[in-house]
Each structure stands twice: as structure tokens, then as C-alpha cells.
Prior knowledge:
The protein has 179 residues and is α+β, with helices and mostly antiparallel strands. The chain is built from three helices and six strands; from the N terminus they run H-H-E-E-H-E-E-E-E. It is 37% helix and 39% strand. The protein starts with a helix and ends in a 9-residue tail after the last strand.
Amino acid sequence: MNFKRLAKFTASMTAISLVSLSTAAATSAAHERAFNQACALTSNKYFISLDRDDHKRYASLFTEDGMLQTPAGVFNGPKEIAAYIEKRSGDIIMRHNQTSILVDQIDGNTAKGVVYALINFLMPAEQGVGQAIPDGYKGELSRGFVIGIYNDEYVLEGGVCKFKKRIYSHGIMNRTQDL
Length: 179
């Protein structure tokens, strides 16, 4: 047995294995970055669609079995989610400012995330939240804001990131609130 040849062969096989591993890691890292960017884009589309009362686009961001949970209730599937958003259209004028997003990939096609948003709103001063702004309203508008906290589950479907689950709460966060 020629030990020099064996050592050379073993070294070359180790080098090939390391190259394969680093290529796989680079491919995996590139996929994870692309997936994270796709999830951030989905979150951006969510806020813009919500602010513009674009019910169809908003609902299309959820999987067929997707779930949205808000203080107003739990809504399942794009049709129910769209109906909820359409019903609340015009209640208040809002602008969502996404401030932070963290996405942790679970595997190649699923991830969890948390999103923080500053939500500015206008509503009639004499009415409570959830009361529609009447057409032609000329009265005073109350201004306010809340911190929105969104705990998400994402799924990659056909190269597009969608919400499997989005749980919205508002208020002040505590240090232990996370994914």
C-alpha cells in the first residue's frame, strides 16, 4: 500500500468535501437571505394594502388556510380576512410605519417572524375607535398612535412568501415579548 498516494487521495477528498459543504452553506445562506427579504416584502405589502383599503391584495398575502388574529377576532382564509378588512374600511384613517422586522427561517419553506410598527391614525374626535368617519365630515379629528406588534408564521409558496398566521396586538412591549 502506498501511504503517500493514500494521504494525497484522502487530502483531495477532504478538500472536495469542504468545497461541497461550503457551496451548500453558501446556497443555503443565499436562500435564507432571499426568503427573509421576501417575508419583509410581504409585510410591507400588508401595511400598504391595509392603509389603501386594498382588500384583495391584502387577502392575497395569506395562504388558503391562513389566519389573522386581531383584538377584533380571528379570521380564517383569504375570503374571511378580506371581508373583515372591507367591513372595517373607513373606520379610521391609518398609516403603518414598519419599524423593525426579524425573520427566523425554520426550514427551507417556513419561517417565524416578529414585526413592530408605529400606527398613526385619525378619527372623529367625538367618536370612539371603530366608528366610521362620515362622508363629508367637517368636524375635528383626533390624532393618535399605537405600537403594533405582529407575530408571524410565513410559508414560501411558489417562490412567494405568504402569511400562514399573523397575530396582531398593540400597546407597549415588554422585554420578554418575542417570537
